[in-house]
User: Fold this.
Amino acid sequence: MSQKISGSVCLNHPNVPALAHCATCRKPVCADCVKSAEGIQCCSDVCLQNALASRVVVDDIMRRKQKSQFKALLRRLVILIVLLALAALAWHYKEPLQNLFKQGKSKAEELSKDLGGQVKGAKDSYQKELDAKDAQRKAKQQKKYGL
Assistant:
């Protein structure tokens, strides 16, 4: 506490440099004004009592935060290990997987060729049906308007 805070002056003594900030309200205080207990420095007895009372709550919150951060780190580590294991398996079974994909691709191309003719036939049939309905609609309009 012997080192002054640059640019800050005591709240109660404007000509004295501040050596600490209150742990509760963050007001600057000098060595004469500081109230301290258990390593906590405050500007008044009220702030010191509030800081000591809330210390238990803050410590509990910090413990919970550290625990959740540890869980998150552990979760990331497990995910990384699983991904590395999957990458190692993929590398190990690279050739069989490539052959399997090639077989799948050739099978898909065969099916595409077979179904391509069926799709073209269905498309032509549907187009003929649409053309017939369009011709009927035009005939009705011509009859209705006497064209």
